[in-house]
Amino acid sequence: MADNHSSTQVTNSDAAPQAGASAAQPNSAAQPNPAAAGEGVTGSLVFDCNPSFEGTAQIDPSAQIAPSAILRGKVVIGPKVVIKDHALIEGEVTLGEGTVVEPFVVIRGPSVIGKYNHFYQFASIGEACQDLKYRGEATKLYIGDHNTFREHCSVHRGTTQGLGETRVGSHNLFMVNTHVAHDCVVGDHCIFSNNATLAGHVTIGDFVIFGGLAAIHQFGRVGAHAFVAGMAALNMDVPPYVMAAGHYAKAYGINKVGLARRGFSEEQISAIRKAYGIFYLKHKTLEEALPLLEELAAQEAVVQPFVDFIKANGRGIIR
Questions:
Q1: 169 catalytic, yes or no?
Q2: Closest CA to 116 of 102, 129, 97, 132
C-alpha cells in the first residue's frame, strides 16, 4: 500500500494513572529528561520515530507490490520490481528494474538502488548510521546492479563528516548478517561471508572476498582481488592480490587460486608473486622496496595497482 501519513504517536502525557499507581513526586519536573534534550540514555540522538514524508509513490504498472507492503514518501518503483508482504520502503528511495524485496525488509532513503538487486527477509538498507556524530542529516546510499543481500544484512547511509554517502557497486554477494557501515565504498564482484563487518569509511576494491566473521577497522582499505580469511581482524590495509589472515591479520602470500579463476595468465601471476616477494620476503623498508616495485611495474602493468595502493595514504600496510 502507498501510505504518506505517519502512524499516530502514543504518549503517556494524557493518560490517566492506573489504579494503585503512586502519584508523581513533587520534584519530578526538576528531574532531567534526556529524550526531551534530544539525547538518549546511551548518549545517542533520539530521532523522530513517526516522521512524515512529502510526495507520493511513483509505481511502474509492471511492478508487483503485496497489499501489506508500505510505501511512504517519494518512492520510485521501476519496471518488474517485486515487493513482498510487510516490506517497508520510505523516504526518497528509488528501486531499479527487476529488484526483489522479500518480506519484512526495511529500505529507507535517501537511497538510490539499481537494477536486479535481491534483498532477503529482515535486511535493513539505507538506515541512519550508528556514528554518534550523526544528527539526522539527509545523507545517501547508492547501490549498483545485480547485488544479493541475504537475511539480516545492514547497510547504512553516510555522514556529513565523511563522504556524505555510502556506495556499493554491482554483482556483490552479502551473506547473512553482514554489515556495511557509513561512508564505505565497496567495488564490484565482492563476496562477504556470514557476519563479515565493515566499519565506517572503509574502501573495498573489486573481486575481494571476506571470510565469515572477518572485520576491518575504520578507514581501512582492501585492494582488488585480495582474500581476507575467516575471523581475520584487519587493523591495517591489505594490498591488491594479497591473502590476509589472523588477529591481527598478516600477509600469507598472493591469492593465486582467485587470480587464476579470474583469467590472470601465468605470466601475470608470476609478476604479482615477484612484487609480493620484493615487498614482503626481502625484509626491505617501504622506501627501499618502492623503486624496485616501480621498476617491475614499468615492465608488468599488472603490478601497478599494487604499487599505487602502497603509495596511497592509509592506515599502513599489513606485513
A1: no
A2: 97
